[in-house]
Specification:
Elements: H1 2-14, E1 44-49, H2 64-76, E2 81-85, H3 92-96, H4 101-117, E3 122-128, H5 130-141, H6 144-147, E4 150-156, E5 173-176, H7 201-212
Parallel strand pairs: 1-2, 1-3, 3-4, 4-5
């Protein structure tokens, strides 16, 4: 019963992670579908999975996802960046099963779609918490040809941090885990260290910018 109560708190804790100061920025919403909304192909396409309980398909504007997108846009130019969030249930059961199955298939399909319609775009896979699980599972669903189109993989608070990402070379992968984050250690207990990856958004963007340069 105690473990169940801890799990029930997962969604509420992740959805109320520490906020960064609000500043004007391009990615100020919680939902982005720039692979499917008619946005022209751009030099870089980030396909992103939000964490359990986070809103929209990328998390609220103060979550790590949108902060990372804006930091990346400031480095490579907003006209060069497209963001596609993954719409999936983002519930506790998905986390317990190692990442939502439909969400994982959706991410893999978005990679295939991006590779087909934007042959010159550099594809970046990214996710936070359960979204990181989805990155791992989606990579395993890709054909090798589509996996070869992935330029970089970036995860935050990754429950599978000790695992490789299938079909993606290790030098294309960056896993950001905080010391004391028990989710990153493969556990189910949320600690404060799992809720403040916003502070890593700029460093993460710098790494991705170097990979897509």
């Amino acid at each position: 019963m105690k473990v169940f109560a801890v799990l029930i708190s997962l969604a509420s804790v992740i959805s109320t992670v520490a906020s960064a100061p609000v500043v004007p920025r391009q990615y100020a919403g919680d939902t982005f579908n720039q692979l499917t909304d008619g946005t022209p192909c751009r030099n870089v396409t980030v396909i992103y999975g939000r964490g359990t309980g986070q809103q929209g398909n990328v998390g609220d504007p103060a979550a790590v996802g949108p902060l990372f997108f804006n930091a990346l846009a400031s480095r490579i130019g907003e006209e060069n960046l497209a963001v596609q969030g993954i719409t999936y249930a983002a519930n506790i059961l998905g986390f317990l099963f190692g990442g939502d199955g439909p969400g994982s298939r959706s991410m893999a399909n978005h990679v295939k779609h991006a590779a087909a319609i934007c042959p010159d775009t550099k594809i970046v896979l990214s996710g936070y918490s359960q979204g990181a699980q989805i990155v791992h599972k989606a990579a395993g669903l890709l054909s090798q040809a589509d996996a070869d189109r992935v330029t970089a993989v970036l995860t935050f608070g990754d429950p599978f941090s000790k695992r490789t990402v299938a079909k993606i070379p290790a030098d294309k992968v960056k896993v950001i885990c905080h010391e004391g984050d028990r989710i990153c250690d493969g556990g189910i207990i949320i600690t404060p260290e799992h809720t403040n990856y916003q502070e890593d958004a700029d460093d993460a963007a710098a790494w991705v910018a170097s990979m897509v340069a």
